[in-house]
Amino acid sequence: MPRRLSKSSGSVPAAATTTSTPGSSLPTFLTDGLPLPSLFVFDLDYTLWPFWVDTHVTPPIKAVPSSSYTTAATDRTGDTFKFYSDVPHILYTLSSTSKTRVGVASRTHAPDLGREMLKLLYVGPPGQQDDEGKKKSDKFKPKRALDLFDGGLEIYPSSKIRHMEALAKRNGVRYEDILFFDDESRNRDTETLGVTMWLVRDGVSWKEIENGVKEWRSRRGIR
């Protein structure tokens, strides 16, 4: 059973929080014809996964053996790590939407370990997971999480301002067209650039994505 590691040092980890995941149909806010951010950007720790990769994970890490693709990893101590429950569906869906790109902005002191975790964790398409004996087309095959971030990865111990500047330049987008999800309120300083930041309290879920998109649209007078 994967564990949700507490942010407070020395505390006993609790079970990972789960949220309901939509079915295979796309959420309404992705299909309603209204504008979407050009770039969705996600923090990693306590945003996409329930741990700090630089303090809770003891390398080396390896994939958890399974009968299908890898959805979890273990470290040297035997602890298990994976995404928040909605995240695989969210990443797969957003990366498949031609209107948007997906990027990472993580201020971690273990950038190599963060990238390694993204290499080990695979994400499958919703409704297409674990059907053994059925051959999938390349379109529906599971993918490394790392490969879904077509907007780029900014993973290093620096300010989120610098992360946003690099991501905007790489993708050729305005700051106003970026929607950023993070669990730390101090990173609202990115909004001085024009970025919309949505603060998540217990990891990214479909509801958090929807609320973030609503806020981004509201700031642009889109109803």
UniProtKB/TrEMBL annotation:
Signal peptide: none annotated. Residues 1-27 are annotated as: Disordered. This is Magnesium-dependent phosphatase-1. Pfam families: Acid_PPase (PF12689). It comes from Coniochaeta ligniaria NRRL 30616. GO terms for molecular function: acid phosphatase activity. Residues 8-27 have a biased composition (Low complexity). InterPro entries: HAD-like_sf, HAD_sf, MDP_1_eu_arc.
